[in-house]
C-alpha cells in the first residue's frame, strides 16, 4: 500500500486545495537558520551606529564605499555594473547598480525609511525648575508616551552654530557616558494619574528630560543649575543657548541591540521600524551581481510623520535621480516609471498572543513566519493606502516561491482597530507597481521593539531576488 492510499479522500483534496499555513522557522533547515543568525550579527552592528537618520546614512555610505560604490556625478556616462550612490541633505541615501538594460524596462526600487519615533528637542529646550535642569521635548512619530518615561535616553543630532559650524552630538551610547531620563510619578502618589486613560496619563508636555542638578557656583545668581549645563555645553561643543534654534537633536532609547530569549532567536532594539528593512535592502544592493534592470535601494526619512518635507518620500529627490538615469538612456521619466516596480520595504505588526484580540488571526503576520507582504495598509474602509493589484501580488508571490523564501501575508490588525500607512502610496502615484514587503515586529514603536532573526534574513533574500527581476 502506497502513502497516498492511506490518506482519506478529504485529506487528499485538502492537500490540493487548501492554503498551507506557514509553520515558520520550523520549515527551515539548520544551515539557513545559521545563515540568518550570521546575517543578523551584521544587522545588530549596523543598528548600533544608526539610531537616527543622519547616522544611518553615514553607516550606509561607509558600507557602500567598502563595496566599491562611487558618489553619483550628474552628466557622467554610466554603464552596466557601475555602482553609484546619492545622498540628500545627509538624511537620504540611494544605492544604485546600473543594469544591462539600464532603465529601458523600468527600475527596481526597494525603499525603506530610517527615521523612527523619538523625542525631539524643542527650539528653546533648556529650563530650570526647583534646582533641576531639563530639556523640553516634542515627540516625533507615533509613541505611547508612558513607555518613554524612566528609561535611559541618549542624545543624538546636529547643532549648527551662528558661525555656520556644524557640531554633531552623540551622548549616552558609550560606556561611561551620561544618559538622560524622563521622570514618572511614584505609584504611592499616582491615584489621580492612575484613573486616566492610558493615552492621557502622560501628556506630551510632561516628557521633560532631566539633564542636571548642580549649580555653577555659590554666587547669588538665579538659575545656576541651568547655567552650569550651558557652561558644560559651551566647553564641549562651543555652543550657546540660542544655538539650539538651529539644531536637530533627538532623544532616543540608550539601549544596545541585544539577543532576546534563551534560544537567541529574536533581537531587541530601538528603531527596528524601519532599519530592519533598510539594512537588508542595503546588503542586497551591495552584494548584487550586475542586474538586468537598474535597481536602487533608497533610504528615506520622515515616514513616521507622513513622508513630508524635502527628505520624505513626497519630495522629488528620488524621482529627479531616476529622471537623470532615464535621460542618460534616452528614455522619458514617465515611461520608465510606468515600467518600474517597487517594494515598499516596511514592517508590519507581528501577532502578539498577549494582545490577540487586536489581531485577526487568519490575516496577521507571525514572528518566524518569514517576510510579510502587506497588500494594503491604511485604515477604516481602506482609506489612505495604495492597494497592490492582483497581478503585482501574483508576480511577487511567484518570485518568493521560486526563490524558496519563507513568506506570509497579513493586514495591520483588525479592520476597525486602527491603522497606519507607509511610503507605498507616494510611489504608486508615479504609476509604479508597489507593495509593502518587510519584517514582522513585536511591540512596534516601543523604545525596544522585537524581531525574529529568520525574518530579517528572509527580507534580505527577498530584496536580492527582487533585484534579479
Ligand atoms: Mn515603518
Ligand atoms: Mn512606524
Please render the helix and strand layout as text.
Layout: H1 3-6, H2 9-17, H3 30-48, H4 53-66, E1 70-71, E2 83-88, E3 92-97, E4 108-113, E5 118-129, E6 132-140, E7 153-160, E8 166-171, E9 181-182, H5 191-194, H6 198-201, E10 209-212, H7 224-237, E11 247-253, E12 258-260, E13 266-269, H8 272-286, E14 295-300, H9 317-328, H10 333-339, E15 341-344, E16 348-349, E17 371-374, E18 378-379, H11 390-402, E19 407-409, E20 419-420, H12 424-428, E21 433-438, E22 440-441, E23 449-452, H13 453-467
Helix pairs in contact: 3-13, 4-8, 8-13
One manganese (II) ion binds near residues 113 and 347.
For the largest beta-sheet, the strand count, sense and barrel status come to:
9 strands, mixed
Bound molecules: manganese (II) ion
Order of strands side by side in the largest beta sheet?
1-2-3-14-4-15-21-17-19
Radius of gyration: 24 Å
- Spans of at least 5 consecutive residues whose pLDDT stays below 50 are none
Estimate the mean pLDDT confidence: 96
What is the terminal-to-terminal distance? 44 Å
Subunit organisation of the chains: single chain
Q: Strand pairing plus helix content: what structural class?
A: alpha/beta
Please, how many helices? 13
Portion of residues within helices: 25-40%
Q: Give the overall shape.
A: globular
Number of DSSP E strands: 23
Report the portion of residues in β strands: 15-25%
Amino acid at each position: 500500500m502506497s502513502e497516498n492510499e492511506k490518506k482519506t479522500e478529504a485529506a487528499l483534496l485538502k492537500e490540493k486545495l487548501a492554503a498551507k499555513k506557514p509553520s515558520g522557522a520550523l520549515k527551515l533547515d539548520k544551515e539557513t537558520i545559521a545563515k540568518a543568525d550570521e546575517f543578523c550579527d551584521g544587522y545588530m552592528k549596523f543598528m548600533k551606529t544608526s539610531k537616527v537618520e543622519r547616522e544611518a546614512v553615514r553607516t550606509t555610505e561607509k558600507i557602500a564605499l567598502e563595496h566599491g560604490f562611487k558618489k553619483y556625478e550628474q552628466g557622467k556616462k554610466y554603464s552596466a555594473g557601475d555602482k553609484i550612490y546619492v545622498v540628500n541633505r545627509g538624511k537620504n541615501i540611494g544605492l544604485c547598480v546600473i543594469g544591462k538594460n539600464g532603465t529601458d524596462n523600468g527600475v527596481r526600487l526597494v525603499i525603506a525609511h530610517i527615521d523612527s519615533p523619538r523625542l525631539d528637542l524643542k527650539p528653546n529646550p533648556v529650563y530650570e525648575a526647583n534646582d533641576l535642569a531639563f530639556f523640553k521635548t516634542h515627540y516625533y512619530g507615533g509613541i505611547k508616551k508612558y513607555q518613554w518615561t524612566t528609561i535611559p535616553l541618549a542624545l543624538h543630532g546636529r547643532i549648527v552654530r551662528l558661525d555656520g559650524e556644524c557640531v554633531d552630538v552623540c551622548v549616552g551610547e558609550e560606556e561611561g557616558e551620561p544618559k538622560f531620563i524622563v521622570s514618572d510619578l511614584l505609584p504611592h502618589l499616582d491615584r489621580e494619574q492612575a484613573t486616566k486613560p492610558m493615552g492621557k496619563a502622560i501628556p506630551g508636555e510632561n516628557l521633560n528630560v532631566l539633564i542636571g542638578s548642580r549649580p555653577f557656583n555659590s554666587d547669588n545668581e538665579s538659575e545656576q543649575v541651568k547655567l552650569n549645563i550651558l557652561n558644560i555645553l559651551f566647553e564641549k561643543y562651543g555652543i550657546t543657548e540660542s544655538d539650539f534654534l538651529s539644531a536637530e537633536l533627538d532623544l532616543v532609547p540608550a539601549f544596545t541591540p541585544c539577543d532576546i530569549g534563551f534560544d537567541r532567536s529574536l533581537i531587541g532594539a530601538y528603531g527596528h521600524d524601519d532599519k530592519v528593512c533598510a539594512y537588508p535592502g542595503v546588503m542586497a544592493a551591495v552584494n548584487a551581481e550586475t542586474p538586468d534592470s537598474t535597481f536602487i535601494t533608497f533610504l528615506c526619512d520622515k515616514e513616521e510623520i507622513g513622508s513630508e518635507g524635502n527628505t520624505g518620500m513626497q519630495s522629488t529627490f528620488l524621482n529627479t535621480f531616476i529622471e537623470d538615469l532615464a535621460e542618460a538612456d534616452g528614455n522619458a521619466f514617465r515611461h520608465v516609471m510606468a515600467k518600474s516596480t517597487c517594494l515598499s520595504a516596511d514592517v508590519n505588526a507581528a501577532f502578539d498572543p498577549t494582545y490577540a484580540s487586536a489581531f485577526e488571526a487568519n490575516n496577521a503576520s507571525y514572528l518566524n513566519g518569514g517576510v510579510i507582504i502587506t497588500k494594503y495598509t491604511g485604515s477604516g474602509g481602506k482609506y489612505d493606502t495604495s492597494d497592490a493589484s492582483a497581478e503585482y501580488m501574483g508576480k511577487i508571490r511567484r518570485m518568493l516561491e521560486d526563490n524558496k523564501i519563507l513568506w506570509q501575508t497579513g493586514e495591520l490588525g483588525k479592520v476597525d482597530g486602527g491603522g497606519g500607512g507607509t511610503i507605498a502610496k507616494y510611489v504608486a502615484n508615479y504609476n509604479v507597481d508597489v507593495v509593502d514587503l518587510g519584517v514582522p515586529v513585536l511591540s512596534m514603536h516601543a523604545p525596544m521593539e522585537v524581531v525574529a532573526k529568520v525574518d530579517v534574513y528572509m527580507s534580505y533574500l527577498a530584496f536580492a531576488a527582487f533585484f534579479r527581476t
